[in-house]
Inverse folding.
């Protein structure tokens, strides 16, 4: 039984209820969850633009690589779209974080590709407290989908969360995830 | 039984014999009276809940976990529990403003009598637009304002009662009550500010109020310094009176934090504003204040302890905040002063005049013997060396803004302060990092070394918008040729402090009317351009296109809602008396106003925002405000945007999501920049007006998002709406989106689309 995330790095987000995230320590398991999803969606936030790893890559570049590998549509929140366009990638959808969550909680929403609502929502780069509250909305009001937080500070309100990671280990997690999705 | 006042009582209170306007359908409304209006709003702008806590801990059946469809022992579900928590917050906020108003009005009646006339000067005939519209009452005296408070107090009991276990069970009906609480809040704030304007002689009927000094660097620490903190300036103003009477006004420095600072500068332009509430602990730790005089709301609750740390004297001046201190109200003044000076005693003094006198005398006595001031970089470097570089990063774990404090400390320890300087701009000096630090490093004190010591200029609060200003701008606002009124309001829990000034200036340059209040007004003042000017020095202070005005403290927010009401009442000549639905409907459909509470943190801010929502004004909130748990959102693609055409009596499916949301959280300044112009669009915009609004939306979207707006097709009703400069780009886009011209209508209204006593012809003017 994997560890349930109760106390993330950021204490504002401490879990108060009974249902907490399953911590996915192994990027291979994470890759499996993403691959098994039928209609996943990657929601990218503005912190993914600004977070640079020591290899010069931003976390947004890992996000886009993951999405590309599994043909996962993207949702650019805040002002992420501009950066994506600069990288030569047009996001599949542009909603602010609250808007996309508001859509996702409706089981009848047709999703960003109009093929039906999504079954796995992967979040990365959203401001920590806002992401946690958005995940809380989906935990309570969207039982029809699963959420995954690719955030090194971890999120108890997600269904699947990364463990708390150092920057170096977070980069390693992304790289291993990418490698596994390539296979 | 739900109604507390019999209709005869209402008639007596609002004096139907005063025939200034016909009495509308909802004089002194109680919760059921405007329930249908609220439900109509909630039909389009559905509550969105983000549970901050999965539990309910409010009764002894609990704790009840409400996750995954579970209900509490009382039967409440998670949505209703969130709405209930919001109602508790809104009632707390309402009570804070209501108690402030009650104290202020009673105090002024004691000094001036209940027949003291309300006169807001030559430029303001419609003295109390909210009171007139909500209650049907035209207050003429301080006694009239007391009736407002009594009405609000009665309403508050019912609202609080609803939060008890085993009362309301519907999230929607909780929201009706939230909206009611918000309405009462703006009402009582209006009463509070009118009372203090007339009672203390604050500026009114002038726009060009004095530019006053702001910034901790503006405080002359060579003088005795009295720091006033809170929102009720009675004691602070009494202090000014004492200084004036004793020829000490130039000898003693009076400064303030939070809204008391706004209000004391409305009383004396020699007073200084230290800054917003977020700089409270920072300034207290500098020890510059010789005497701290607290009143009410948003005051740190451990000030006695903080005062002792620096040797500052403390007087608590409000029954809301007594800190367990000895009551010296009835003690001889000389004795109180002596005990504070000689023994360092702290007191609560409920008499503002006595509190003011004691504050001044103690400051003069103790100032010469106190060491005060900011630490320098050398001292900060030594302190920063105490950081043990713990692997847990406990400081960051505790930081509300998740700041990399340890990195800042490490660099400071090496003599480099740039990182720390940038952290200070985002830091609100709550001090939680110090608590969690294994070595309790004095982070807030270390921050003193990098804080700017500059003096900035803030325009002091001007109170109500003038009737003549409304006559001038009413038409262009309603037609849309003034693209909107943007009000930056609320507290200072921002993602970054510089955002407010930048956003305010952007929209002033674009000829919006920019209003500010409270801590947002202060924060906006603390940015200078290359020429060393703040936005208040650069832009005219009128309620007009391209101007920037500061209405004043929190309670002065009522004047922003009041301005919107006056557009309906003065410009459109709609009767406002007890005519809430007609006026709110007009604002929702015709007055392109948008509030921005970028740093809202308090329960009061939640109430104020909700109050604006009931008037039909959308409010953008900063990211921290997601913790309020509830928003009001539409889904533009899916929702039904049918309204009534008031002239034809026909329902029209406008397909036009304006305004798109009522309460909306945004993560970044860039996104806020593109959302503000969108939320200023209204169905009533004429094609030239919509062209102007779309022009701003498109140009900002292109700047921050790199393309045409992804939802542009929703806001173009006909090709006449397309700004000429963008026509070549927009037309192909519309074609690609399969855009079709939207139905036109002449008088958009929600009246007639829900059960109401209001007849459709009431909206025709």
């Amino acid at each position: 039984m994997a560890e349930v995330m109760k106390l993330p790095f950021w204490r504002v987000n401490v879990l108060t209820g009974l249902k907490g995230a399953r911590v996915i320590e192994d990027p291979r398991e994470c890759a499996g969850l993403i691959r098994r999803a039928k209609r996943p969606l990657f929601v990218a936030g503005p912190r993914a633009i600004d977070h640079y790893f020591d290899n010069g890559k931003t976390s947004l570049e890992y996000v886009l690589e993951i999405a590309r590998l599994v043909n996962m549509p993207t949702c650019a929140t805040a002002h992420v779209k501009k950066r994506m366009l600069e990288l030569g990638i047009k996001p599949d959808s542009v909603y602010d974080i609250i808007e996309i969550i508001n859509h996702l909680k409706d089981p009848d929403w047709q999703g960003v590709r109009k093929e039906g609502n999504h079954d796995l929502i992967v979040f990365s780069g959203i401001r920590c407290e806002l992401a946690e509250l958005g995940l809380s909305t989906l935990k309570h009001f969207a039982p029809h989908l699963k959420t995954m937080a690719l955030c090194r500070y971890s999120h108890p309100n997600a269904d699947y969360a990364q463990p708390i990671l150092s920057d170096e280990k977070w980069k390693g997690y992304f790289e291993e995830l990418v490698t596994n999705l390539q296979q | 039984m739900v109604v507390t006042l019999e209709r005869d009582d209402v008639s007596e209170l609002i004096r139907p014999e005063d025939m200034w306007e016909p009495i509308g359908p909802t004089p002194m409304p109680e919760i059921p009276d405007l329930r249908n209006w609220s439900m109509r709003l909630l039909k389009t702008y559905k509550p969105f809940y983000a549970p901050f806590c999965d539990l309910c801990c409010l009764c002894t059946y609990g704790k009840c976990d409400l996750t995954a469809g579970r209900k509490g022992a009382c039967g409440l579900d998670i949505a209703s529990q969130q709405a209930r928590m919001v109602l508790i917050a809104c009632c707390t906020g309402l009570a804070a403003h209501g108690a402030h108003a009650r104290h202020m009005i009673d105090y002024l009646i004691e000094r001036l009598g209940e027949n003291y006339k309300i006169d807001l000067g030559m430029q303001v005939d419609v003295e109390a637009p909210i009171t007139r519209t909500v209650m049907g009452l035209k207050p003429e005296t301080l006694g009239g304002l007391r009736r407002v408070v009594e009405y609000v107090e009665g309403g508050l009991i019912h609202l609080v009662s609803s939060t008890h276990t085993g009362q309301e069970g519907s999230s929607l009906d909780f929201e009706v009550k939230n909206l009611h609480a918000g309405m009462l809040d703006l009402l009582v704030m209006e009463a509070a500010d009118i009372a203090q304007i007339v009672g203390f002689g604050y500026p009114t009927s002038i726009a060009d109020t004095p530019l006053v000094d702001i910034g901790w660097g503006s405080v002359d620490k060579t003088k005795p310094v009295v720091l006033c903190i809170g929102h009720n300036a009675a004691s602070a103003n009494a202090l000014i009176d004492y200084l004036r009477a004793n020829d000490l006004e130039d000898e003693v420095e009076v400064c303030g934090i939070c809204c008391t600072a706004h209000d004391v500068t409305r009383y004396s332009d020699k007073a200084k504003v230290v800054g917003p509430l977020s700089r409270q602990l920072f300034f207290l730790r500098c020890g510059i204040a010789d005497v701290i005089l607290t009143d009410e709301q948003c005051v740190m609750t451990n000030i006695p302890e903080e005062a002792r740390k620096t040797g500052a004297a403390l007087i608590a001046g409000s029954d809301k905040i007594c800190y367990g201190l000895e009551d010296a109200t009835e003690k001889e003044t000389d004795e109180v002063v002596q005990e504070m000076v000689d023994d360092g005693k702290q007191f609560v003094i409920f008499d503002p005049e006595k509190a003011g006198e004691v504050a001044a005398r103690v400051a003069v006595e103790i100032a010469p013997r106190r060491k005060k001031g900011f630490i320098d970089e050398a001292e900060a470097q030594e302190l920063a060396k105490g950081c043990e570089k713990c692997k847990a990063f406990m400081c960051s774990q505790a930081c509300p803004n998740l700041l990399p404090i340890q990195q800042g400390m490490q660099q400071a320890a090496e003599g480099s302060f740039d990182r720390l300087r940038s952290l200070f701009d985002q830091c609100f000096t709550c001090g939680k990092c110090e608590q969690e630090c294994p070595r309790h490093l004095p982070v807030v004190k270390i921050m003193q070394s990098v804080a700017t010591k500059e003096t900035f200029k803030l325009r002091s609060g001007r109170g109500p918008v003038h009737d003549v200003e409304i006559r001038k701008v009413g038409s262009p606002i309603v037609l849309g040729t003034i693209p909107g009124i943007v009000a930056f309001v609320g507290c200072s829990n921002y993602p970054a402090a510089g955002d407010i000034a930048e956003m305010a200036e952007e929209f002033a340059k674009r000829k919006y009317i920019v209003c500010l209040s409270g801590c947002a007004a202060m924060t906006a003042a603390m940015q200078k351009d290359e020429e060393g000017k703040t936005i208040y020095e650069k832009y005219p202070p009128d309620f007009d296109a391209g101007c920037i005005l500061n209405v004043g403290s929190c309670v002065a927010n009522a004047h922003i809602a009041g301005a919107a009401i006056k557009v309906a009442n003065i410009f459109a000549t709609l009767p406002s008396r007890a005519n809430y639905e007609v006026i709110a409907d007009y604002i929702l459909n015709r007055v392109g106003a948008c509030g921005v509470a970028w740093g809202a943190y308090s329960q009061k801010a939640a109430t104020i925002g909700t109050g604006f929502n009931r008037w039909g004004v959308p409010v953008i909130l900063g990211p921290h405000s997601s913790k309020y748990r509830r928003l009001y959102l539409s889904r533009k693609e899916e929702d039904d945007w049918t309204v009534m055409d008031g002239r034809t009596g026909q329902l029209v499916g406008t397909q036009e999501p304006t305004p798109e949301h009522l309460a909306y959280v945004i993560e970044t300044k860039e996104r806020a920049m593109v959302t503000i112009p969108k939320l200023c669009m209204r169905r009533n915009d004429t094609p030239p007006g919509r062209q102007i609004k779309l022009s701003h939306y498109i140009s900002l979207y292109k700047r921050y998002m790199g393309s045409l707006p992804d939802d542009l097709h929703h806001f173009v009703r006909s090709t006449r709406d397309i700004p000429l400069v963008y026509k070549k780009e927009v037309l192909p886009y519309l074609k690609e989106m399969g855009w079709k011209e939207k139905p036109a209508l002449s008088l958009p209204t929600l009246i007639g689309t829900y059960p109401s006593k209001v007849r459709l012809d009431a909206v025709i003017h």
Observations:
- Chain A is about 40% helix and 15% strand.
